[in-house]
Design goal:
mainly alpha; N-utilizing Substance Protein B Homolog, Chain A; globular
Length: 140
């Protein structure tokens, strides 16, 4: 059996943290993440990328949200499901601030998260929005 890619597993952890923070509706993401991961058994293999993504999201969430909203003119971010919203945030953060993750990989991983945790419509929706985000990043 093939071992899970540490970054793939890290993205799942980040989605869990982001979902919890989003549902709580208050407090800083950094504090929420620290409290959410305290006492949880997280493999040391996953932790560096979890920490990297959460730091990027904490520092650049507004900019990521603005890119996402600009890429879906007929939707508002606050009207999306928390799962879809946070999958889009994670992938956008990767496309903007993690240079060793190609856009197509960030999109593929987001689609996988959407297939696993989202609704039946989530994978296609996530793919379409992130394709537009990627085009926007390449030619702002």
């Amino acid at each position: 059996m093939k071992a899970a890619n540490p970054r793939s597993r890290a993205r799942s952890w980040v989605l869990q943290v982001m979902y919890g923070w989003d549902m709580a509706g208050d407090g800083s993401l950094r504090e929420w993440a620290r409290d959410a991961l305290r006492g949880r058994t997280v493999s040391p293999r996953y932790r560096p990328y979890i920490d990297q993504l959460l730091l990027i999201l904490d520092e650049q969430l507004d900019a990521c949200d603005a890119r996402i909203e600009a890429s879906m003119p007929n939707w508002r971010l606050d009207r999306l499901s928390a799962i879809d919203r946070n999958i889009l945030r994670i992938a956008t953060a990767e496309m903007v601030a993690v240079p060793d993750v190609p856009h197509r990989v960030a999109i593929h991983e987001a689609i996988r998260l959407a297939e696993r945790y989202g609704s039946d419509d989530s994978p296609g929706f996530v793919n379409g929005v992130l394709d537009a985000v990627g085009r926007q990043i390449v030619s702002p």
